[in-house]
Amino acid sequence: MSAAVAKPTGTPSTTLGSRKAKGGPLTSTPAATNKVKEVGDLLADMSAMASQIDTFALAAASEKDAKQRAERELEVERSRVKAHQQKDKTPRPTTGGSGRSAKNQKVLDALAELGVGIDGAESTVKKTKEQLGRELDEMRAKAEAAEVAGKKLEEELRTVKSNAEAIELSRKKLENELSAARAEVSKLTAKIKEDYENHIRSVEDHERKGQELEEELEAKDKLLDQVIEILGTYRARLDVYAKMQLGSR
After folding, report:
1. Coiled-coil stretches, from where to where (predicted)?
2. Between residues 196 and 71, which one has the greater pLDDT?
3. How far, CA to CA in Å, does 105 sit from each of 73, 95, 98, 100, 118?
4. What's the CA gap between 38 and 32, in Å, rounded?
5. Per-residue pLDDT averaged across 218-229, rounded?
6. Calpha distance 18→240 (Å, rounded)
7. Which one, of 76, 59, 74, lies nearest residue 109 by Cα?
8. Distance between CA atoms of 47 and 24, rounded to whole angstroms?
9. Better-predicted residue by pLDDT, 198 or 42
10. How far is CA 161 from the centre of its chain?
């Protein structure tokens, strides 16, 4: 009977940790923490069961050694009794002989009981070991399932991280485009403002020139009125002069 049970090597938590070290830091989630805790609990139970199996195996081995020692002692006693019987062909019942026979019978009965007890203990240990082995296999299967779930969760975390990076790149791209659009709008606004100010100045120049032209026209109208008035005066004088000429004839 084996006195030691092989323990699993490479737990899902350490494997996940190594993958973290290779693939970079991952964001911890409650689901991932629960998975790691579950794997740790399973491994602790497996270790405890392995220790219990070792204890049963050692106890069975000790009982087996005791049985073998008792059997050897019984064999020695049987050999001694047999030699004595061969020496004495006509055994006579004596108190000492009866005592030895009774002692031998007690030893035989005790050894028989011890053998039955040891056999029962070995059977119990065997059944317990088989049961613990099945439970250990179940826990290993659960640990493997937990590791698979951990791998899946890690892939999901990588996908989330990749999506977050893509979203961050899109956000930066949109920010750059928005900054460019703001700069373009600012540039267009400045151009429109400049054109409007130029238009206002042009209108003001036209208004000023119109005002100057209007004032100039008014001045010319006044001058023309003066010319007309002067011409009227000269005409009246010419009329008088003409009448005087006609009268002198």
Report:
1. 129-226
2. 196
3. 14, 15, 10, 8, 19
4. 10
5. 90
6. 132
7. 74
8. 31
9. 198
10. 8
Taking only the tens place, the pLDDT of each residue in 137-160 is 888 888 888 888 888 888 998 999
pLDDT, position 142: 85
C-alpha to C-alpha distance for 39 and 12, rounded to whole angstroms? 7
Taking 70 as the threshold, does the pLDDT of residue 203 lie above it? yes
Which residue in this structure is represented by tokens 């062909």? 89
Which residues contact residue 47 at a Cβ distance below 8 angstroms, ignoring those fewer than 6 apart?
A: 7
Among 3.40.50, 1.10.287, 2.40.50, 3.30.1360, what is the CATH number of 12-188?
1.10.287
Residue 207 has φ and ψ, to the nearest 5°, of -65, -45
Query: Model pTM?
Result: 0.32
Angle 120-125-131 from CA coordinates, rounded to 5°: 125
User: Could you tell me how far CA 50 lies from the centroid of its own chain?
Assistant: 33
Distance of CA 242 to the CA centre of its chain: 124
Q: Are 5 and 46 in contact (CB under 8 A)?
A: no
Supply the DSSP symbol for 51.
H
Among 71, 115, 73, 80, smallest CA distance to 100 is for 80
CA dist 1 and 102 (Å) reads 35
Q: Alpha-carbon dihedral of residues 37, 155, 26, 43, nearest 10 degrees?
A: 20
